[in-house]
Specification:
It comes from Lingula anatina (Brachiopod). One of its GO terms (molecular function) is calcium ion binding. Keywords: Disulfide bond, EGF-like domain, Sushi. This is Signal peptide, CUB and EGF-like domain-containing protein 1. The chain contains six helices and 38 strands. The chain is of the alpha+beta class. Among the domains are: 61 residues, Complement Module, domain 1 (Ribbon), CATH 2.10.70; 41 residues, Laminin, CATH 2.10.25.10; 227 residues, no CATH class; 46 residues, Ribbon (Tumor Necrosis Factor Receptor, subunit A, domain 2), CATH 2.10.50. The strands form 16 sheets. Strands 24, 27, 28, 30, 31 and 32 form a six-stranded antiparallel β-sheet that branches. It has a three-stranded antiparallel β-sheet with strand order 3-4-6, with no helix packed on it. It has a three-stranded antiparallel β-sheet with strand order 18-19-21, with no helix packed on it.
Amino acid sequence: MNGARARRVGRLSYAFISTDLAQQVTCPPLPAPANGKVTACQVSINDVCSFDCDNGYILSPSNQQRKCQPDGSWTGSDVTCLPCGQNTYKAGPGQCTRCPADTHTTGTASMLVGCICNDGLTGPGGGPCQDVNECSRQNGGCEQSCENTRGGFQCKCSIPGYKVNPADRKRCIVEKQCSSFTTPTNGGIVCHHKNDTNTDRCQVKCNDGFEHPVRSNQFEECGPATNFKWSYEINNIPIPACVEQYFPGVIVDAEIAYFVASCDQLTDQQKQDAKNAFLQLLRGQGVCLENGRAVCNVTDLWIECGEIDLSGGIQKRDASSSRVLKFKFKLTTDQKPVRTMNCGRFCDGQAVCDACFTNHVQSTVRKVTAEQEKLREVFGTQAAPDARPNPQPRPGVSTTSGAGVAPKSFNRGITAFRSNLARNFNRVIPSTSGQSPVRPTEAVTTAAPPRGMMNIGGLVLMPAPTGLQMMSDVKMACETGMEKKRDMCVPCTPGSNLPPGGSRCEQCIAGMYQPEAQKTSCIPCPAGKTSPRGAIGCA
């Protein structure tokens, strides 16, 4: 055996290993672990090998050294490098530590610098991290408002009535909004929406030739301030329809006196018959007719017994008065709807203007004046049979009808008319001057019956000379229940009224109502019911 020697002692023998062989015993080389390395290592007996892992990895087991033993083996077991988990970093050879606050890792096997700031924060790896104000850049992409938070932001809906859209949290959707505005009949609305307050404001506009006689508000509003109800809904006052505008009609008061026997003893039937005959007489004479078409109306006809001055305006000893039957009435013209007046001829295309109104007034007054002249032709001065055909009034003497006669001729005419009637109708006509009644057997001067004379079943009515009186000047007037607005007539709408003597349509007060237009009063609600202001019914 090379390098060795043997020795026999008695029956036993011993082998001695040479010193050279003992010095040649070594341990096998140790490989570097995956994701690690051997830092210092010899393979001789008692030599120690150290290990280290790459960044983000730690040793397992945590013992970092292995020793070569005399038998040529290594102490311990194979070394493994394990990665630090998500959101942790390698703090030492065998220690993984959680990332600092507001940081995270994008994977495993990280060092401290791999702990980066969370979204919405900025700073170096491992911190510290500072907040980023996302709202400072394009409002964070929010549609309405942006609220910055640490590490993030929130989009919010700052306009009342909106909420965040759950499908896109940067946008807002409508949660509350106003109902559709009620468009009035014969009109429309002009509305404006304020985006910043989610408020609607509408103004009622009537069509040409229509108007609102009663409007408490110039505008109607709906939005957060009204809890998304229209102001007219809160006040429980519906938007009234636009009512038609009219140019006013014309009114003139007239009176015609008739001689009649025993005026105060006329029966109600005789009075009614007299009114019917009078209206028929007017139609027969063409009053308020032009080419067969009505141009005015005879209205408010009533009769009464009264006195007529027979002096012709001059007081003398032989002058006296006579009891007569007076027919009182009005000549009126209908109101004209503005939309039918073709005002564009005068108004440069506008719906209405002063020039159009003036033309209407002038035209209407001309028509009424013409009808007044017809009345004067029929009921004006009745010439006596022995008088001139067209007696002239005395200087300084005039009547409302524009005609007059001398007193003597005037009285002679009365006597002649009375005698003529007595002869023709075999009636005794009472004297008007204290003289004896004129009888049919007396010789009288025959005169043609006056144009305005009426015979009603034997009851003779003879127009008194100068018995026509125009009791008022021509005046413009609106019908009952209509308000005059800018020279036009507008009917009061349902829920309002025009009290007698009033000048403006007024809304019915609470507890009263009016379902119809053009009325002069409101109706109290039945017992147990009530109504708001301007109501058309009770509940």
